[in-house]
Metal-dependent carboxypeptidase (Kushneria indalinina DSM 14324), 992 residues
Amino acid sequence: MTSSTAYQQLEACFTRLHRYAHLGAMAGWDQLTMMPEGGNEARAEAMAELSVLMHETLTAQETRRLLDEIDPASLEPEQQANLREMTREVRDATVMPPELVEAQSLAGARCESVWRRCRPANDWEGFLPTFREVVRLSREEARIRAEALGCGRYEALLQKFEPGLNLETLESIFDDMRQWLPGLLSEAVAHQRGGELVMPQGPFGERDQRRLGERVMRWLGFDFEHGRLDVSLHPFCGGVPDDVRLTTRYREDECLTALMGIIHETGHARYEQNLPQQWRRQPAGRARSMAVHESQSLSLEMQLGRSAAFVRQLRPWLVEALGDQPAFEADNLIRLAQQVEPGLIRVDADEVSYPAHILLRYDIERALIEGEIEVEDIPVRWDESMQRLLGLDTRGNYRDGCLQDIHWTDGSFGYFPTYSLGAMLAAQLMAAARRAEPQLDARIAEGDPGLLLDWLKTNVWQQGSLLETPELIRRATGEALNPEHYRHHLRERYLG
Amino acid sequence: MTSSTAYQQLEACFTRLHRYAHLGAMAGWDQLTMMPEGGNEARAEAMAELSVLMHETLTAQETRRLLDEIDPASLEPEQQANLREMTREVRDATVMPPELVEAQSLAGARCESVWRRCRPANDWEGFLPTFREVVRLSREEARIRAEALGCGRYEALLQKFEPGLNLETLESIFDDMRQWLPGLLSEAVAHQRGGELVMPQGPFGERDQRRLGERVMRWLGFDFEHGRLDVSLHPFCGGVPDDVRLTTRYREDECLTALMGIIHETGHARYEQNLPQQWRRQPAGRARSMAVHESQSLSLEMQLGRSAAFVRQLRPWLVEALGDQPAFEADNLIRLAQQVEPGLIRVDADEVSYPAHILLRYDIERALIEGEIEVEDIPVRWDESMQRLLGLDTRGNYRDGCLQDIHWTDGSFGYFPTYSLGAMLAAQLMAAARRAEPQLDARIAEGDPGLLLDWLKTNVWQQGSLLETPELIRRATGEALNPEHYRHHLRERYLG
Ligand SMILES: [Zn+2]
Ligand SMILES: [Zn+2]
């Protein structure tokens, strides 16, 4: 077989995997938005079976034989990039025993379902048994992956979401942040003190909020021919690039949380909808990594969505959708969008205290995976960190404490750091976009986010996974990931 | 390998198929209820890939080898039934050349899409070319299956939907119906003449109609922990037994059509939800056949739902949900539910004229598959039959004539007869349930359908495919399928 025939056969294999993944993505979306409780067991089985199938396909001897036969020099540069991604995926799958993959899928689904019941009931004890099994399996995974990659256990999990990120880099970024974050946070709180804040008065109907959200989504270029907006307990962006499913949740007494959540998910969604069309069914056509993904949601939510210029755009739409009231006065709206107030819930956190939530989770999950603590130790660690980082007491409040996130329930350890890496990258990208497009802020102030969106499309969305992350960042911004842009952005916005 | 090990491996293989089917069922439901237009191409690709996977799994040499190794005598009786169903499925898949399966899938998708354009445009000529290819491929399929089964060509297609039904039996049932149906129909129309009918006056809000529908579903025992109700252009019952998804469509100017549609789909849904739990993942745990499935929807819609006793139950709920009006007076409601009026459209037809629509389609599709007529001959045959059976003129009206149904566009020849077989079986089952439970009608009149539902559960739902259809009918009713019960039911209700 020629090298190029082998490559074509490998593409056919990954096209098949892409289609299997489509079915899994839709079943996963349905599970969180539509599925009745009683459907969970059968769904979990079906999705586990799909994981096994995909794992088998990726690790088949035939797949590895094809990989071996290809001479990269015979390929076009973009095909070489695709081959690099294929190789990594096959390697990452091959190290995992199929029984472990299946056990994780089943345990994750079960734990998530238990979590959905235990969280509202504040029932940590009820959550523990199924969660303990998830942790056990993740530790096993970490051990296996670390051995294969020749790195640390937690690092090995991190690399599932952020290929090639080494723990030392992350550590130095986070250690740096540990130095300046608490100071910046208290300065920001002090800086806002005395500014009076008028809170919006509900009730705000769900239908009105949804219409407003859809209007903003359209303004941000979301393509409703290839996606939809629904409701789920925990907002997310799922589906497939041709059919992106994003969700939010509405509160009757509040209107900005759901809206900012929609803007956030729209950032994820536009990335997905604008991945390179010609690589749609291949690994090279996928989103680059979780941190890059998050940088896109935060470019829209934080960099753009909470900027004074954007909030002024928003005001008339808010008034049209929900009626006018004193809280919707422009300067008050800006203060609301930029209010810094340490709280218990990560997803409701403001931009300045958010990294503290990440540091807390990072410390705990790393210790958990490395075997330094056990699941029973989590609440105490959680309380200590909340006290230290945000000055808040969560003792006994599992619901708004260590039971608040979905991530750990299906074993997604190593994911949390990508949120803060994404925030840093978003600030860095925004700075680069401003340099490339000097009219960018003026145009946003006139109601047109096109310069920013087009710049992101060219420099990030259309790149898919054709470049590795460091190279993507360097080409887009002229330098490596540099958290200084983020710190600068926070100082500008909150201490300016 | 021992025979019992082979059987266990075969069960594992069918469990895997069951889980794949779950993903397909959910993606199919989503496609018709939730998916935005632009998602169609990727979805079609994903679902076609799944069909290929399932076909490959069913026809794999390993699967056939396992089948050959099993000694049925070594199995328990229920395992033997399961083996019988497995064997039939593998055989039905194996006889078909993969190229023909693929060609049919492509031609069907193309023809369905042409149909969607041509039907509203009344464009028969535009529909013909793609339809001719579908017929050509279905004739090829019929030839291959007939040879494998040693039966007639149309019969071979019929057996895809109604395993084991021979054409002679169907012929004799339909020939009999041809004798009495036209007379009964004109008698029923004459019998109703003069009875004045007050039509409901809308608008009826969708939300109010949905709440009413859900209330009736609950009364009929639908389990909302394992299913949901949504909206689609063409009502259907999909999903999986653990999570049954049924749909309806609402019209603002009308309220009984959607409600009766919901009752109909609830019949399908209760059958699915109550299939035998211990055989859930195996062929023996599936619904028996299309005719038996339809008998369950019609037991609830026609036998129960349009009975005077049920309609009297319905009245206060209707008034509570939609407000009172003269049309909702009990006797008028009963007349509305039992109105006989020959019309052009099958799906809108009443219980008495519905079989005429089936006879017409049966005659045409049978002649078409046997090669006695060509697609060009369909309109003339259609017009003749409509004139003869229902006294209606459809010349030139393809839209409401031979272009009205979706079934033929993807080559589902042999499906239509199951609607009328289902209606007959429903009447026969109802008669048997009445004999078994003498209090059945009195209890329904008191507002409790439990005796009927429990009888269906025991005698039909819980049987799955453990018995073959003739045996299922015999055990439940004490005799073979006997259309006399149906004729008797129609005479009682419409000439009584
Ligand atoms: Zn995000
Ligand atoms: Zn039906």
